[in-house]
User: What shape does this take?
Amino acid sequence: MPGTFVSAKVTRAQRVIKAGAILTIIGLVATLIAILPLVSDIELSGTWWFLSMITGVGLATVLAGLTMSARSRSTSSLASGSPSE
Assistant: This one.
């Protein structure tokens, strides 16, 4: 059944998007912690700056998931013969 295969691809894409969103949130929290020494007298290690780079990884993962979702939807519309509009 082609519909089941396409829905499995969409589900996988949704999981990738959710994982990317979680990574982005973790990165943003790490960024907020990393900039605390700029506004207070707290001393933190440089590890927090590295952890804040997870934000970019999360955003790239979200974009990859959106691309996967768009491709699976266009493939399903081409397979069913319906117009893309």
User: Anything to note?
Assistant: The chain is about 80% helix and 0% strand.
